[in-house]
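Dear support,

Our group has been running a series of protein-ligand predictions, and this particular one with flavin-adenine dinucleotide is the one our PI (initials K.S.) wants archived with full inputs and outputs. We had some confusion internally about which version of the output was final, so please treat the block below as the authoritative record. The input we submitted was:
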Amino acid sequence: MSKVAIIGAGVSGLSMANYLEKNNIDYHLYERRTPNDLKGHGFILPKEGIEHLSSIIDINDLYAKGSFLKKYYHYNQAGEIISEKDLDNVFVVSRSALIEILAKGVPADKISYNSTVALNGFSNGKAEISLDETKTLEADIVVASDGSRSRIRRTIFQGETMKAVLENEVVNIIENEELAGKIESNFLKFHHENGGLTFGVLKLSSSKILWYCQFDITKFFINEDYTPDCIRQFMIDNFGSWNPLISSIIEGSSYENAHIWRVYELEKLNPFYHENVVFIGDAAHPLIPFTSQGVTSAMKDSFTLTNLLVEGNDLQETFRKYEDERRPEINIHIKNGRALLEQFLLPLNEQPKNTLPISYK
Ligand SMILES: Cc1cc2nc3c(=O)[nH]c(=O)nc-3n(C[C@H](O)[C@H](O)[C@H](O)COP(=O)(O)OP(=O)(O)OC[C@H]3O[C@@H](n4cnc5c(N)ncnc54)[C@H](O)[C@@H]3O)c2cc1C
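Confirmed final output from the archive:
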């Protein structure tokens, strides 16, 4: 059986490793960061993502670490309700909890942290890859799960263009039992009447909440030092006069772990494979945050690719089938993501009715 090198231990690399482990396919996973550095913030997962996770993890582990969202409420900045919607098994969990649960399914001798892999070229249809610029790695198949700004992808598709998305985000997780109790199982989103500025808040557990803001980068500017003080100031300047729930959250939050996401997308998707290198997750198709489909898509990529590898056909045929199966759905999420971005930018009085808070295929 072929030996697979998986590059990057985010959700996509770890889920691929879990699927290969379950199917007795030989692999090794390389991650440039340390396990403690693999933190990050939170994910909203639709029902389909939970179903995929159920096949590789003990789902009760996940349920203990996050919570289901039952209802979506859309407000204006003053806190007047604009619309509400029932949600069908949408789950929210912190990235660190999901990464920790997925990593449990990968034996310690099959994952190397602090290990950066580079692609140096191709020889006889095979990628020449090296570890930490010193050691040559041997692999029959290279699974590139190295994220939206994949170096491996940029080395192969040198003409690609990554473009800044008009929206950026500040994300924060804070401890606040009282607020978590108040929010219950609701997904609250507040939208500025002129558009281009929102604040979302959800409960992660009985004592933790996740809040985020989305802002139009042509209208709102954050000091690029990105220090906790700069982020706090940005939040107070732009949300201090909103509904009291929001002003109390932003004033009462610690900003030590607040994170600013600069969002990029590929102008045009590349092929999902080249020679013996295949891309999964954000490395294949960065999806903008509005879709909430990044994790589920990464799970589905790994699931589809593993099933095709198990069939044992010719590698190019396997990769072609993988791309044929996954690309149409990704194109739908890209289209939906752009529609959700447009909607975010619009003033409230121009918002379309009955839109969903995330992308569905
Ligand atoms: C603001 C924001 C909000 C989001 N919200 C959601 C959400 O609510 N729901 C959802 O489903 N998705 C969301 N997403 C998308 C989601 O984060 C990703 O789609 C998902 O985590 C899959 O990521 P990945 O594993 O492909 O890549 P990543 O998580 O980026 O992992 C890539 C890994 O590869 C490692 N790496 C990189 N280069 C190398 C190298 N050369 N050698 C070794 N290792 C390397 C990195 O250190 C990293 O650990 C959001 C994204 C953003 C930016």
